[in-house]
Amino acid sequence: MNQRTPQASKAVWLSRFGPAQEVTEVKEAPAKQPAAHEVAVKLEFAPINPADLNVLAGKYGTLPTLPAVPGIEGVALVTQTGSAGDASLAGKRVLLPHGFGSWRQTGVLAAQDLIVVPETVPLEQAAMLRINPATAWCMLNEFIELKAGEWVLQNAANSGVGRSVIQIARACGLRTLNVVRRGGLEAELRSIGADAVVEEGEQLSQRIAAATGGAQIRLGLNAVGGECALGMAKALADGATLVTYGAMSLQPLRIPNGLLIFKDLAFRGFWVSKWFEKATPQKRDALFARLFAWASAGVLHTPIEAVYPLEKIHLALEHANRPMRSGKVLLHG
């Protein structure tokens, strides 16, 4: 066991739900010491995800009991092990678990919750693996058994999940048709493996068919809703599945009766938090082993636009809310 004198530790605290910069503040408190089966960790990096911003606003699927430390994911360094712990864990880099609240300099967590990150994975990339790449992998594998060469249709293709879908699909021999909300993104998305890119708008289903040569598309991934999701549904093959994991347009899904009756489409939802709740440790570990391998090889990579120290949380939140960013905003412990 590695004993240390408690030191002051800073964390972002959420006192109420509302506008991000109004409801968060940085507070300082003594660092906690790990109990027998716990470890102490020091934050390396944590991203600001859209889900985090929704939590701050009080508009997410599950909300913490207030006051609380926000932050859905991140990567940390184990600095100390409890009396009953494995001392060899000290110095290891680990993914922070759901519910931990990653926007803090230090904390303690159960040793059994640790997912050790290989040294070959860049720390900044490790911080962003639990949500977006995991969501992409699960949606590509949990609903339809796709064969190499098949097409996957998605919107919000330049989002964090969308980019992960493109990269993972390419690594698995799948092709992607990517719908975006603005022009000027085709070259960038093709550079990471996109096979075709089209913009939202009129006659979307016809333009999708033209871009794929009329291919039978059995899986669609929707993070937008509204008219865009309807256009995608019309482009899917009979018996296909449309998976919804977001609602960027703030418009509901429109499901005409004919798509259910005559095309026999299946409409499903996905939330990676629920997947982690239900997944066995073996299934979870297999997921991360695959993601770690791709991140180590550079196959899976998320662009980063800015990194802010935890104390600059209000500047970081303002940056994360800017439209048309070129990458993620990270917090550094």
Account of the protein in words:
By secondary structure, this protein is an alpha/beta fold. The chain has 2 domains: 8-128 and 302-332, Quinone Oxidoreductase, Chain A, domain 1 (Alpha-Beta Complex), CATH 3.90.180.10; 138-273, NAD(P)-binding Rossmann-like Domain (Rossmann fold, 3-Layer(aba) Sandwich). Helix content is 30%, strand content 23%. It has 12 helices and 15 strands. The strands form 3 sheets. Strands 3, 4, 5, 6, 7, 14 and 15 form a 7-stranded mixed beta sheet that branches. Strands 10-9-8-11-12-13 form a 6-stranded parallel beta sheet, with helices on both faces. Strand 11, helix 8 (226-235) and strand 12 (241-244) form a beta-alpha-beta unit. The longest helix has 17 residues, at 281-297. It is globular, with a radius of gyration of 21 Å. The model has no long low-confidence stretch (mean pLDDT 95).
Residue stretches low in confidence (pLDDT < 50, at least 5 long) are none
Largest sheet: 7 strands, mixed
Q: What level of helicity do the residues show? A: 25-40%
CATH topology of the largest domain: Quinone Oxidoreductase, Chain A, domain 1
User: At the fourth CATH level, what is the homologous superfamily of the largest domain?
Assistant: Medium-chain alcohol dehydrogenases, catalytic domain
The fraction of residues assigned to DSSP E strands is 15-25%
By DSSP (H or I, 4+ residues per run), the number of helices equals 12
* Spatial shape: globular
**Helix-and-strand structural type:** alpha/beta
The helix-strand sequence is EHEEHEEEEHHEHEHEHEHEHEHHEHE
Mean pLDDT: 95
Total strands: 15
Query: Could you name the CATH class of the largest domain?
Result: Alpha Beta
How many discrete domains?
2
Could you tell me how far the N terminus lies from the C terminus, measured between alpha carbons in angstroms?
A: 24 Å
CATH architecture of the largest domain: Alpha-Beta Complex
Radius of gyration: 21 Å
